[in-house]
Write a structure and sequence with these properties.
- It catalyses: N(1)-(5-phospho-beta-D-ribosyl)glycinamide + (6R)-10-formyltetrahydrofolate = N(2)-formyl-N(1)-(5-phospho-beta-D-ribosyl)glycinamide + (6S)-5,6,7,8-tetrahydrofolate + H(+).
- One of its GO terms (cellular component) is cytosol.
- One of its GO terms (molecular function) is phosphoribosylglycinamide formyltransferase activity.
- Catalyzes the transfer of a formyl group from 10-formyltetrahydrofolate to 5-phospho-ribosyl-glycinamide (GAR), producing 5-phospho-ribosyl-N-formylglycinamide (FGAR) and tetrahydrofolate.
- InterPro entries: Formyl_transf_N, Formyl_transf_N_sf, GART, GART_AS.
- This protein is of the alpha/beta class and 202 residues long.
- It has a single domain, classed as Rossmann fold (3-Layer(aba) Sandwich), CATH 3.40.50.170.
- Helices cover 35% and strands 23% of the residues.
- It is built from six helices and nine strands.
- The strands form two sheets. Strands 3-2-1-4-5-6-7 form a seven-stranded mixed β-sheet.
- Helix 4 links the parallel strand 4 and strand 5.
- It starts with a strand and ends in a 7-residue tail after the last strand.
Length: 202
């Protein structure tokens, strides 16, 4: 199985995937970013994984960036693309090319609190429970079919940083488990319903 990872930041999730798949037959063919200086690219290089980057400002418009980014990713012939902390919305060209094969994690229980500030928004709303969602990417913002969800209780007086870190621990573990599952198994998607994957008990 050929896996390509996309990320924008420090790469803690990417690092977890690299380490968590080390004893499998899954090949991480590249790590891509929208930022040439993203720390995640250094983590990938340290693991001898090829990297690439492309920032939208270097293109005539968003559509041109999307098309170029799509072609770059396609050149690696990935079976699956994982958005592992990638902070750009993937456009029409990308989703059309890889639709049904793009995985994302989100730090909330979708459809609640989509977008870039899921943890902050859950706290501001006064939610008592949040968590993380593994889902497929479509052209919306965190609107793709849900693969699995993992709830976590919000502790009294917990701040955003502490809650987000607890969510990330679950996110890293469960994404690795799902990718290991995909090496030998498949999921079925019918409309918004995803079947075939049952998370292991923690």
């Amino acid at each position: 199985m050929r896996l390509l990872l996309l990320a924008s930041g420090t790469g803690s999730l990417v690092q977890a995937v690299i380490e968590g798949l080390a004893d499998t037959g899954i090949e991480i063919v590249a790590v891509g970013s929208d930022l040439a200086d993203a720390p995640v690219l250094q983590k990938a290089r340290a693991a001898d994984i090829e990297v690439f980057s492309a920032h939208p400002r270097d293109y005539a418009d968003r559509a041109a960036w999307d098309q170029a980014f799509t072609e770059t990713v396609a050149g690696y012939s990935p079976d699956w693309v994982v958005s592992a902390g990638f902070m750009r919305i993937l456009g029409t060209a990308f989703v059309s090319r890889f639709g049904g094969r793009i995985i994302n994690t989100h730090p909330a229980l979708l459809p609640s609190f989509p977008g870039a500030h899921g943890v902050r928004d859950a706290l501001a709303y006064g939610a008592k429970v949040t968590g993380t969602t593994i889902h497929l990417v479509d052209e919306g913002v965190d609107t793709g079919p849900i693969i699995a969800q993992f709830p976590i209780a919000i502790e009294p007086d917990e701040d955003e940083a502490a809650l987000h870190e607890r969510i990330k621990i679950i996110e890293r573990r469960e994404l690795v488990r799902f990718l290991r599952f995909l090496e030998h198994s498949t999921i079925e998607v019918s409309g918004r319903h995803v079947s075939g994957y049952t998370p292991s008990a923690s």
